[in-house]
Structure formats: structure tokens, C-alpha cells
Design brief:
The protein is an all-alpha fold and 120 residues long. It contains 5 helices and no strands. It is elongated and about 55 Å long.
Length: 120
């Protein structure tokens, strides 16, 4: 696994858990889960067939968190940054999705002839 991607996922999870820089964290989470969704797309919807159900749900949950905010018992709430403007939440969702799709487009490598396609 790529170390940079692992660090990005850990930082994203920590920021979302703490409710810190929520639009940025939600944008990162939406981006990572968009890539995961596109990787699993060919397997269909359901997770029991290694489908995209779970990553799509996580992307949707991160987008909802961007729109609703982390709540007053969060780092953002303690610093008085709430409520976030709606346009910022929408921009985070759009940029996260666009960034994930662009990343997938730029880094996609088709399987070599005769080699089975990887599931992740």
C-alpha cells in the first residue's frame, strides 16, 4: 500500500473524528471514497460481491457531514467556526468528488494481458 495514501486516510479520519477543519476533512474523505468506488464499480453494488456499496456509503456520509457540520462538541465548535457556510460545504463535496475522479483517471493502469484484474 502507498504510504502517502495511508497517511492521507489516517489524517482524514482523525480530522473527521475530532470535527476539525470539517469541510477539508470531508472533501478528503469524499475524494478517497470516490476512488474506492470507481475501483469496485465493475463488481456491482453489493459489498458481499466486493462491490461499491460501502465506499459509496462512506462518501455519502462524509458529504452529509460537510453539509450538517460536526456539532458544537467538536474542535470546530470549540473554536467558534460553526456554522460553516453552505457554499463551502457544497464546494468541499464537489472538489472531493472531482479530485477523486481525476486521481482515478490519471493513475488508472489497465491490467496487463493475461493477468487477472486486481480487486482493489
Amino acid at each position: 500500500m502507498n504510504t502517502g495514501l495511508l497517511i492521507l486516510r489516517v489524517v482524514t479520519g482523525l480530522l473527521l473524528t475530532a470535527g476539525a477543519a470539517t469541510p477539508l476533512a470531508a472533501s478528503m474523505a469524499v475524494g478517497v471514497m470516490t476512488v474506492a468506488t470507481t475501483v469496485k464499480w465493475r463488481n456491482g453494488l453489493w459489498a458481499q460481491h466486493d462491490g461499491y456499496e460501502y465506499p459509496a456509503f462512506l462518501a455519502l456520509a462524509a458529504g452529509c457531514l460537510a453539509l450538517t457540520g460536526p456539532g458544537r462538541w467538536s474542535v470546530d465548535g470549540a473554536l467558534g467556526r460553526l456554522p460553516w457556510p453552505t457554499w463551502l460545504a457544497v464546494a468541499a463535496i464537489v472538489l472531493g468528488t472531482s479530485g477523486g475522479l481525476l486521481t482515478r483517471l490519471l493513475l488508472h493502469r489497465p491490467p496487463r494481458p493475461g493477468m487477472p484484474a486486481a480487486s482493489t
